[in-house]
Amino acid sequence: MPASTARAAQLCIDALDTCACSRSSPLYTVMSMAGTLESSRQAWVIRGQSRSRRPGHWPIWFARNAGEKPLLYLHSATSSAQLCALSGQTAQRGILCNDSETHPSPWPKGAQPSLPLWLASHPRCTPYDPASGEEARAIVLAGLRTLYVDGQPGFYYLALHDQPSTLAAQTLDREGVIKGMYPVQRAAGIENVRLLGAGRALEEVMHAAQLLEQQWGITAHVWSCPSYTRLAREAAAVERWNRLHPCAPRRSSHLRDCLAGSRTPVIAVTGYPQSVIDPLAAHVDTRFVALGAGSVQAAAPNRYWIAVLALKALADEGHFDTQKVEDALQRYDLK
Asked: In DSSP terms, which residues pair with 291 in a beta bridge?
């Protein structure tokens, strides 16, 4: 990594650190950060949302420059083909921010099902689905430092929505955000179930936790998971290392560390198709339920389905009356 690029990235980070962070949505937080980076003149900020959706028409003038600067590319790719073309145009470098979720679309999160699969399988891509502006801010800052100060290869991807989050700023664990998972709401007493959510789906997860406590006496521990893919990749890498070094002390992944110490069921929710979460199942040592768009309804599961399936998981473990699961289905008009 050229010293000039690292210096430019550090100046970008310093400029962003001086800006106040309001409790805004991920989209408007990143848009505000883009304005600051433009003013600093130390980064390339490309605004491609209003351009043609044909990749050949997207701005790529920065690629003709000899020296590298930090790149923040705002776009609206809806398919894996578009995203693949864009990553190629950026030489698989930079922070790519997609606001397709904010546009009318027949697809969950505004993207064809192939797009999240491409994100999960691309080895140089680190994908995130932030739930709040604070999470998005932490991810962009980490991307600037990782890619351009530390000189690591690859690119970051953020799915941006425009719904302000109700998450309290003091709950933010920046290290946990980057690793892919951190707690946002702890059970008041002994936890009965653990609920995981990403992006806009986290809001429904938090409402489901309220339903469970107020209507069924079930306490839930809620986690924000900005990157299920990063969690799954690290867990798989750690498992492989342990397999190749059978005589060495075993290593543990962030996912296992977060879920250690409890055998209560885990319900993980995303606005993307369920296949984004399925790889986590091999690394969770308790009953695990993955829920995504298409799991129980065309869109992401709503709070009522999340609550009912949490009750069903508890019933399968013998900790809840199966008849009450039927009652919940009727109560929420899900039958």
From this structure: 269
Q: What is the mean pLDDT of the chain?
A: 92
Q: Is residue 57 part of a domain?
A: yes
Across the chain, where does the E strand assignment appear? 44-47, 71-75, 94-98, 125-128, 155-159, 182-185, 193-197, 220-224, 266-273, 288-293
Sorted by sequence, the CB contacts under 8 Å of residue 294 that are 6+ apart come out as 108, 273, 274
Rounded Cα gap, residues 165 and 184, in angstroms: 12
Residue-by-residue DSSP string for 17-67: HTS---S--HHHHHHHHHHHHHHHTSSEEEE-TTS-SSGGGS--GGGG-SS
For 197-215, the pLDDT digits (tens) are 999 999 999 999 999 999 9
How far apart CA 328 and CA 322 sit, in angstroms, is: 10
What is the predicted pLDDT for the residue at 2? 80
Residues 155 and 252 in one domain: no
What does the pLDDT read at residue 50? Answer: 45
Distance CA(75)–CA(97), nearest Å, equals 6
Q: Is residue 164 part of a domain?
A: no
pTM over 0.90: yes
Residue 78's contacts (CB-CB under 8 Å, 6 or more residues apart) are 53, 100, 105, 107, 110, 111, 112, 115
| Domain shared by 182 and 62, yes or no | no
Residue 21 pLDDT greater than 80, yes or no: no
Asked if 10 and 149 sit in the same domain, the reply is: yes
Q: What is the CATH number of the domain that holds 283?
A: 3.40.50.920
